[in-house]
Amino acid sequence: MKIGIDKIGFYTPPTFVDMVELAEARDVDPNKYLIGIGQEKMSIATKNYDVVAMAATAADNILTDEDKEKIDMILFATETGIDQSKSGATWVHDLVGIQPFARSVELKQACYSATAGLQLAMGHIALHPESKVLVLATDIAKYGLNTGGEPTQGAGAVAMLLSANPRILEIEKESTAYTKDIDDFWRPNYSEFAFVDGKYSNEAYLSTLTASWNRYKAQYQAQLSDFEALLFHVPYTKMGRKALQALEDEMDEAGTTRFDSYYETAIKYNKTVGNIYTGSLYLSLISLLEQGEELPADARLGMFSYGSGAVGEFFVGKIQTNYKNYLRKSSHEDLLNKRKQLTIEEYENILSTPLEVDETGDILLDVDEFVSSEDFVFVGTNGHRRQYQRANN
Ligand code: HMG
Question: Where do the H-state alpha helices sit in the chain?
């Protein structure tokens, strides 16, 4: 039985910062951000957008009423959690209107956990072929103003519906996961911003890639020429180039050209959204599928997922016939093109202004001018209970 991605879509908030303006404000050569880091824009979540609001909007955009009746598991992957006990999946379950007899849970392992979600969904569907599983990858990447990580921020969510007989991408059951306890990037519970050892995190990403790939290669007698394209976790688009370079010795000239060319297509969305942590690999997948020429049916995509701390996984997706019919290219292009550019002053205010808490400890938020009317939004807390609504309600 084939199991994999039947539907996929992403959401990113309607405001962004232009990387040239940010570079000028930081007195940095813009080419460092545009070429050295490889980012053109980065999405910024204003106060009404948290991981639940973004994931609910992403999910709502891809699901039909029939899907909502069939989904019996929601896996909410994030490292930007908003509650130590309750999972983000339960709010999304309610906002989107999934039938009640569903298992809802949150998963965490830095940028890797959506891939864990995908693998758990595969096992669940193998046991229950009629079921559908909603996997959500949702995050806000924040390093803070004037930090080394500042140009590698971003915000967004990817929603994937996993099922038997998927129409977009079959996920092969063979994969290799790898774990090593390191401190390259982490965010203690008391900190709003991530801590990172930038250079070490790049090295850790690459050594996890080679460890995962070498093991996969040995276990399954694989070689890079088995794949039509390679996809990577994309914290910033230069990182995937470094990943391709790390594997270059195993490619012939035609392979290098092919993988480089697909990579260009696979980063079109990431270049203008930034790092969305758990969703970044899947944003890159969407970019390749939507922005590229039609890939041959059964073409195999080698995929590398990385989450600091660190866990990596090399696995493979197989293209399904007519997959282009099930994508959401024009909605995604509209979403990106209609975003509003923030001034650097607006962006700095957003990042540096904490949510106001009243004397009872609650937060009361207006729906601000940056919000898109159809989106789900966070509007504060009532008795410490988080409140969400459609922006245009
Ligand atoms: P930095 O020190 O600001 O930058 O840190 P740099 O000095 O290393 O320069 C970056 C690149 O720009 C270099 O190229 C420069 O040569 C080039 P490279 O050597 O890397 O090929 N450059 C220029 N190019 C053209 N024109 C110019 C110019 N000037 C310089 N004028 C760093 C960069 C990415 C480390 C920093 O932004 C950072 O710490 N970011 C956050 C950490 C990160 O994204 N790490 C990635 C791997 S870990 C990961 O992926 C996990 C993660 O997603 C979290 C999770 O799992 O949850 C982060």
Answer: 19-25, 30-31, 51-62, 65-70, 88-96, 113-127, 198-220, 237-247, 253-266, 268-273, 280-291, 329-337, 344-352
Phi and psi angles of residue 108, each rounded to the nearest 5 degrees, phi first: -135, 125
Average pLDDT over residues 292-313: 97
C-alpha 34/C-alpha 355 separation (Å) is 32
Q: Are 94 and 58 in contact (CB under 8 A)?
A: no
Q: Ligand 1, atom 51: nearest CA belongs to which residue?
A: 308
Q: Tokens for 89, please give them.
A: 């999946």
Task: Determine if the pTM surpasses 0.70.
Answer: yes
The per-residue pLDDT for range 193-210, each reduced to its tens digit, is 999 999 999 999 999 999
42 C-alpha to center of ligand 1: Å? 15
- Which ligand 1 atom lies nearest to the CA of residue 306? 56
148 lines ligand 1 (CB under 6 A): yes
pLDDT over threshold 90, residue 240: yes
Closest protein CA for atom 2 of ligand 1? 148
Q: Could you count the other beta carbons within 10 Å of the beta carbon of residue 36?
A: 14
Nearest-CA residue for ligand 1 atom 10 is 36
Ligand 1 centroid–CA 38 distance in Å is 9
Question: DSSP alpha helices (H): ranges in 128-267?
Answer: 198-220, 237-247, 253-266
